[in-house]
Write a structure and sequence with these properties.
Elements: E1 2-7, E2 10-15, E3 25-35, H1 37-43, E4 51-52, E5 56-63, E6 74-77, E7 80-81, H2 87-90, E8 101-102, E9 115-119, E10 123-125, H3 132-135, H4 138-150, E11 158-162, H5 166-176, E12 181-185, H6 189-196, E13 202-203, E14 213-218, H7 223-232, E15 233-241, H8 254-258, E16 262-265, H9 271-280, E17 289-294, H10 298-305, E18 312-316
Parallel strand pairs: 11-12, 11-14, 12-13, 14-15, 15-16, 17-18
Antiparallel strand pairs: 1-2, 1-4, 3-5, 3-9, 3-18, 5-6, 6-10, 7-8
Helix pairs in contact: 4-5, 4-9
């Protein structure tokens, strides 16, 4: 099969063997895959990794030796492959499995390829009414919804999202479903336009009031964004971090202590609610698609995705 392989700091499009299936796994043919900020950070050394990147995808089950009824089903897949037996798994914290591998991020080959091996327990069937261009957003939308698992939002809450990029757009739309008093810091006009078209007000960085929001979500992926988020949160408010970045970030902890801020890291989220929201059309992510490239042009696709302000870039292994 063809795949985009990341080795020794560079990417290469080449022929690689089909994935070998372990017990309980299916071979999935990838229809579409999305490039996210984490993929870009992986190129900068966010985590040591060698192999096929990518974790956002929609595909069709091509081989299902143990579950033949799954063959031909269109699916998306959760990215954490867990053991099910460690203390974290037994306690219901499988996303923090002590022996987990992570699709295209940690010790597991990813989806920037024609095929990927996935455990059946990680797969979710895509409703027939949800097109591939929508289903490919299931994983990042699930990550956005995870915020509500950590910090339930009420209509009376004043909420700020810092960053209106790939993830920030979905975070804002997910939080908007709660009816809260929501604002988003958008750096680029086209990002603000997309949100305002959905009735979500935007602010420039200079317009953000200090210590006025009881919930702030940092989704900018930049030290400047974190500082802005820290300034905006009111005493005893909650600050949710959604960005994964390579390298270290200077951090002044004293204001967090003095203002008694609750700091929450938030990562992967629930697929079933995400698929239900997409099926119901409550969130339509298609306006976020900036470009679509064949897999053979993945290097150009990564260059496009890395440009400031660019939203979702998709890879099409069949294109």
């Amino acid at each position: 099969m063809k795949a985009v392989v990341f080795e020794d700091g560079r990417m290469d499009y080449r022929e690689v063997p089909l994935p070998a299936l372990a017990r309980g796994e299916a071979l999935v043919q990838v229809n579409l895959a999305g490039i996210c900020a984490t993929d870009l950070e992986m190129l900068k050394g966010y985590r040591p990794f060698s192999g096929i990147l990518g974790h956002e995808f929609v595909g069709v089950v091509a081989q299902a030796p143990e579950y033949p009824a799954w063959a031909g089903r269109r699916v998306v897949g959760e990215i954490n492959i867990t053991c099910g037996t460690c203390s974290a798994c037994r306690a219901g914290r499988s996303n923090h499995c002590e022996r987990r591998t992570t699709l295209g991020i940690s010790e597991r080959q990813g989806v920037f390829a024609e095929f990927v091996a996935m455990p059946f327990v990680n797969l979710h069937r895509v409703p027939d009414t949800v097109p591939d261009e929508v289903a490919v957003f299931t994983e990042p939308l699930a990550a956005a919804l995870e915020i509500l698992e950590h910090a339930p939002v009420r209509p009376s809450d004043r909420v700020l999202v810092v960053g209106a990029g790939r993830l920030g757009q979905l975070v804002a739309q997910a939080l908007g479903l709660t009816g809260c008093d929501l604002r988003v810091v958008a750096r680029y006009p086209h990002q603000a336009h997309l949100l305002q078209a959905r009735g979500i007000p935007c602010l420039a960085e200079s317009e953000v009031p200090q210590k006025k929001f009881n919930l702030v979500v940092e989704a900018s992926g930049s030290p400047e964004g974190f500082r802005l988020a820290q300034q905006a949160i009111r005493p005893r408010g909650t600050l949710v971090l959604k960005s994964t970045m390579a390298g270290e970030m200077p951090l002044n902890l004293s204001p967090l202590v003095v203002d008694e801020i609750t700091l929450i890291g938030s990562r992967c989220g629930p697929f079933k609610p995400a698929l239900r929201i997409l099926e119901e059309g409550r969130i339509d992510p298609r306006p976020l698609i900036a470009a679509r490239y064949p897999l053979s042009q993945a290097l150009a696709a990564f260059d496009e995705a890395a440009r400031p302000g660019v939203l979702k870039v998709l890879l099409d292994p069949g294109g």
